[in-house]
Amino acid sequence: MDMSNSDAAQLTPHRPKVAVIGGTGMNQWPGLEILDSMKVDTPFGAPSAPLVVGRVAGVDAIFLARHGEGHKIPPHAINYRANLWALKEAGVEYVIAIGAVGAIAGWFAPGGLALPDDLIDYTSGREHTYFDGRPGSGLKHIEFNVPYAPIVREALLKAAKAAQIELRDGAVMAVTQGPRLESPGEIRRLKQDGCDMVGMTSMPEAGLAAELGLRYACLAVSVNWAPGIGSGDIHGQIEHWLALSMAKVRAILERALPELDVPG
Ligand code: HPA
Hints:
Shape: globular
Number of helices: 6
Helix content: 25-40%
Distance between the termini: 24 Å
Structural class: alpha/beta
CATH topology: Rossmann fold
Order of helices and strands: HEEEEHEEEHEEHEHEH
Largest sheet: 11 strands, mixed
CATH class: Alpha Beta
CATH superfamily: Nucleoside phosphorylase domain
Radius of gyration: 17 Å
Bound molecules: hypoxanthine
């Protein structure tokens, strides 16, 4: 599909290479010096929120609030196609997605951070491809054997090391439909399937990014033990660990962005 005539391609004065998609707990990016806010449209409709162009650590970046301004859009209703399309049109090459997740693996206690390198998609009924058979959509069976881009994962790992923040390298993400949390039986199944964590947004986000040639990785933040894995009040855990973890996420981002924003 031709992007050259589209809104974002023509209206974007800034062409940052890196975008951050903020999820639950990161609806805004404190520390980002805001330069511009672009309300764009795409052939798939409007993205979740305006694309916020800002500067952090001397690097221009785009921030997109996945759940919309005020965190109102549930995971299954997010217009993922519009979100990724808008970033591609704006000239982005690298996408860092922040994902708050439930922990399945024992090593991933709430408060921990991890970089998944694989995923299993348990979602259903989401608009998950640009090759949807509409006239002009074309068809490519893209490869998906590396769902999270090594170059972005490496930048995040290097950044975490520099910030002296522990970041587990490699894990399997389960992506469920939501918005409800899972039953203990569902979590047992995900564990048997080899999943280490469970979230609700990495798909179709990662797949669409791959279809567009965007290099995408997810910085996952453990905010609760998944149902049946731990005990206690899950929402209490989520609130507690979200509040405590986002400063670490921002510290990693500030160091990762300059790694990716290099010429060439
Ligand atoms: N399950 C699914 N998604 C989540 C969870 C969970 O336990 N915690 C945060 N996002």
